[in-house]
Design goal:
Elements (H helix, E strand, L loop, with lengths): L7 E8 L7 E10 L9 H10 L3 E6 L5 H11 L8 E5 L4 E5 L7 E2 L4
Antiparallel strand pairs: 1-2, 2-3, 4-5, 5-6
Length: 111
């Protein structure tokens, strides 16, 4: 956005039908300007917001199956690792639970 400030994107995906079988994934990214384009801080972010077409640099990309992890790391050089990720969807909310070996499950806010 401007020196000392930035925008991050935390997104959650569930893939039910794909070549990696079904799996869940979380993405932590830094929002950037389009490669090769100038950045004018918040003025660059405004058109991206209105079009819904964001560019970013992925920092973390945990998945919940070994097949998705291996294909992401070996096939695409993505920063993937294996962890527990659960999706629970009702007619009023979606809840994502992310687990690791050192802490109790952390619950992301419902959307």
């Amino acid at each position: 956005m401007w020196p000392g400030r930035g925008v991050v994107a935390l997104t959650a995906y569930t893939y039910e039908y794909c070549d990696n079988d079904s799996y869940n994934e979380i993405s932590l990214s830094i929002v950037t300007s389009k490669p090769g384009k100038s950045s004018f801080g918040p003025f660059t972010l405004l058109p991206q917001s209105s079009s819904g077409d964001f560019w970013g640099y992925v920092l973390k990309l945990p998945v919940n199956t070994e097949l998705a992890r291996v294909r992401g790391v070996v096939g695409y050089n993505l920063p993937k690792w294996l962890t527990g990720i659960e999706f629970k969807e009702t007619d009023k909310s979606i809840a994502i639970t992310v687990m690791d070996s050192e802490t109790a499950p952390a619950r992301m806010p419902s959307v």
